Amino acid sequence: MRALPWYCTLVSSSFALWPQPKHFEHGSSTVWLSADVQLVHSSRTASNQPLGWLWTTVQQLIRPSHHGASSTIGPVSSEILLQSAFERMKHNVLDQGFVPRKFHPRGAQFEPATHNVKHYIERLVIDEDPQNNLGSTERHDKSEAYTIEISEDGGALIKIASPLGGLHALETFAQLFFAHSSPSAGSYTPYAPLSIKDSPVFEHRGLNLDISRN
Known about the structure:
By secondary structure, this protein is α/β, with parallel strands linked by helices. Helix content is about 20%, strand content about 25%. It is built from three helices and six strands; from the N terminus they run βααβββαββ. Strands 1-2-4-3-6 form a five-stranded mixed barrel. Helix 1 (about 50-60) runs parallel beside helix 2 (about 80-95) and helix 2 (about 80-95) runs parallel beside helix 3 (about 165-175). The radius of gyration is 18 Å and the shape is globular.
């Protein structure tokens, strides 16, 4: 997957997530992502939040516009925003996933058997509520925090306080899955049951561009 950096091949697959979440506990059972997985979005956030700038970013990631093309962005709900990010996650996992051979010694058998009983994630539930308990954060603002829970039987729950946290959560969620070398087998995570809690470390982000050494 594109979201994984090159140096993930040098570390244990159990921690091949970037950015690394603050809290990550996992088991060793296999859960598969259904090709027909559906998003179930429950929101207790005001629907009139100004999310146009966030929607523009997601649109550029999902469907890059042609050179010179422009569009007018109107009011956008968190449901539309998260549904689009969800479709992008499905595309990355189901259509662009990779077989993690470099995470294991040459010749090692690391893939789950395809003839065993499979547990599928059929629904991904996103619970959006400003009052959600998302763990301790250094920031008073919880807008980018999220939690992910995946059970051994295929239950999948993401908790967020705002759509921005949902975007981060779906990027992490996609990195949990690998493609099977058998094309018809689908994509799986070997980490169930798992629990992830994450939030920004710093209150502000910055970029230092040194233009004197071109």
